[in-house]
Amino acid sequence: MTIEAKLTLGPVLFHWGAEAWRDFYFRIADEADVDTVHVGEVVCWKRAPIYAKHLEAVCERLSHAGKEVVLSSLALVMNDAETDGLRALAGQDRYWVEANDMAACALLSGRDHVVGPYVNVYNEGTLAALAARGARRVCLPPELPRETLAALAKDAPAELEVQAFGRFPLALSARCYAARARGLAKDACKFVCGEDGDGLPVETLDGELFLAVNGTQTLSGACGSLIAELAALRAMGIGRFRLSPQKVDMVAVAAVFRAVAEGRMDAAEGDETLADLVPAEMPFANGFFHGAEGAAFLAEAE
Amino acid sequence: MKGKTRKLELVCPAGTPASLRAAVDAGGDTVYLGFRDETNARNFPGLNFSREELRDGIAYAHDHGAQVLVAINTYPAAGNLGPWHKAVDDAARLGADAVILADIGLADYAKRNHPDLRRHLSVQASASTPEAIEFYHREYGVSRVVLPRVLTVEEITALNGRIPVETEVFVFGGLCVMAEGRCMLSGYATPCSPNCDGVCSPASHVRYVEKGESTVTKLGGFTVNVVSGEEPAAYPTTCKGRYRVAGKPQYLFEEPASLSAMHMLPELAAAGVTALKIEGRQRGRAYVSQVVAAFRRAVDAVAAGEPVPLAELAAITEGGKQTSGAYKRSWQ
């Protein structure tokens, strides 16, 4: 018995600028075959005011297009201004909120919400505790291997989701590396992260792509892809897949995932089609799922 | 109880029974340690305590007026909670003064099964706000939180005024530049992660390759540094590597430096912190003795209102360079 597949478009993690951000979501609303769309600043609270002016229009357009809208919260909350932002999110009840920090979990406790991949859910004890406080859906951390995912999916008290596309979020810091890489202080950053639409590539000294920096966040250099693992995930009871926006044709990416999920395209063809959509210098990775180093890209043995 | 007027408590690392005795003998108030398995965040070969060693260590510490905290601060793997539950059970049975936990499920287990066992929240839980800390206190009876290394002293001061629990802060040793417990860099380069396996950038996956005049340092398949000539090859922790970014080689995340906040003890005391933590369960007995003794003198001086006697510890720190990390805003 295989669970039905649902597609979630994750929040835009990068600093794309207000108009590009709005237009991206408008196009997703009009054209993308996804069930759920996340909106909201997850990485740097300094960016939030820039997007605030378009937030309502974006949410309206997505809702009218029949998409479920979820408001994602900041992943690392450190001060009062950021906590006030959390309170504002928790204070509205029109959309579900995704908690990406324990402060958000605390504020949303007792009402239906989503728990995001930045909250450490590694086992059934934690999953049960969060579900008991209102978590209805949990997007699991990217580093969980297949065995852990299967154990969590067994009798899970909340719907489970995994990131199936896009650079994996790997780390958060108080320090801004987009600024530091350019010799700037965080408090005088000039929003240089806006130059890094897919993240700032971090290469080894021998020229191999390793990581990508998005302000205070560090992502995988490789683009995560579990297109070949969709069937295995659904067989274990995980049917919701997060597509994390990159500067690629996300409408086309969603179409590929939908086609493979519905059996209209086989995984190998899906993989090839995705490869045509993603820049050649960004390889794919699925190592976490297979219990290997996360950067590995391994064939699914089925 | 908040210890604002008490002398700062000195919390010291012990990777072995010898280091435990060294820390106690050098004046440590409290020793923290872990079992010899994946239940703690310093799961390195040849390190940590058997159950019997813990029993003896607790006896030694208690005989000398010191306390023992057991770190059970990795994230239990779904479907295999047994080792973590047993670690909590055994810490309680053997008389540990507290357990240091990160996982919500495990905190829940400890509270239900050992309500009288004191619970501290590990830095690995990354609780950085009053809301998060109150949640752990209210739901799981956590009585102390080890603060993540992302906060400035000003932020710590504000936090302490608003939470009902004690805080413990790192003052010396290895420095995570990422929010702890939320970093998967090691697991991206190697099959081992801090949260799951209790190891970061493990030595088993490090290689040093001589290439002409240079030494190439590899972690897993990735080159994390290339050094030549006099330059020392620091341990290749992922976040202390040198990478090519924006066209030039740079220590993007952090130089090979370690934390030293000894000069900031008066500020941290004024910030309302209860306890000071020294990192380094992987370091030897001599290191523990030297650092603990130096901090003992410093803490006593602060309590007496005297200037901090700054010890010269740079020679024994990783990379030989020191930073006060996130405590100063300019670091960010």
Draw up the topology in text.
The complex is a heterodimer of chains A (302) and B (332).
Chain A (H helix, E strand, L loop, with lengths): L5 E4 L8 H14 L4 E4 L8 H17 L3 E5 L7 H12 L4 E4 L2 H7 L4 E3 L8 H9 L2 E5 L6 H8 L5 E14 L4 H5 L18 E4 L5 E6 L2 E9 L4 H7 L3 E4 L6 H12 L5 H11 L6 E2 L17
Helix pairs in contact in A: 1-2, 3-4, 9-10
Chain B lengths: L8 E5 L3 H9 L4 E4 L17 H13 L3 E6 L9 H12 L4 E4 L2 H10 L5 E3 L8 H11 L3 E3 L6 H8 L5 E8 L11 H5 L4 H4 L8 E6 L2 E6 L2 E7 L14 E3 L2 E3 L6 E4 L4 H6 L4 E4 L6 H19 L17 E3 L9
Parallel strand pairs in B: 1-2, 1-14, 2-3, 3-4, 4-5, 5-6, 6-7, 7-14, 13-15
Antiparallel strand pairs in B: 7-13, 8-9, 9-10, 11-12
Helix pairs in contact in B: 1-2, 1-10, 3-4
Structure commentary:
Chain A is of the alpha/beta class and 302 residues long. Chain A has one domain (6-285): TIM Barrel (Alpha-Beta Barrel), CATH 3.20.20. Chain A has helices at residues 18-31, 48-64, 80-91, 102-108, 124-132, 146-153, 177-181, 230-236, 250-261, 267-277; strands spanning 6-9, 36-39, 68-72, 96-99, 113-115, 135-139, 159-172, 200-203, 209-214, 217-225, 240-243, 284-285. In chain A, helix 3 runs parallel beside helix 4 (102-108) and helix 9 (250-261) packs antiparallel against helix 10 (267-277). The longest helix of chain A has 17 residues, at 48-64. Chain A is globular and about 50 Å long. Chain A starts with 5 loop residues before the first strand and ends in a 17-residue tail after the last strand. The mean pLDDT of chain A is 96. Chain B is of the alpha/beta class and 332 residues long. Chain B has 2 domains: 9-175 and 257-331, Aldolase class I (TIM Barrel), CATH 3.20.20; 185-250, no CATH class. Helices cover 29% and strands 21% of the residues of chain B. Chain B has helices at residues 17-25, 51-63, 82-93, 104-113, 130-140, 153-160, 185-189, 194-197, 265-270, 285-303, and strands spanning 9-13, 30-33, 67-72, 98-101, 119-121, 144-146, 166-173, 206-211, 214-219, 222-228, 243-245, 248-250, 257-260, 275-278, 321-323. An 8-stranded parallel barrel of chain B has the order 1-2-3-4-5-6-7-14, surrounded by 6 helices. A 3-stranded antiparallel beta sheet of chain B has the order 8-9-10, with no helix packed on it. Chain B starts with 8 loop residues before the first strand and ends in a 9-residue tail after the last strand. The model of chain B is unreliable at 1-5 (pLDDT under 50).
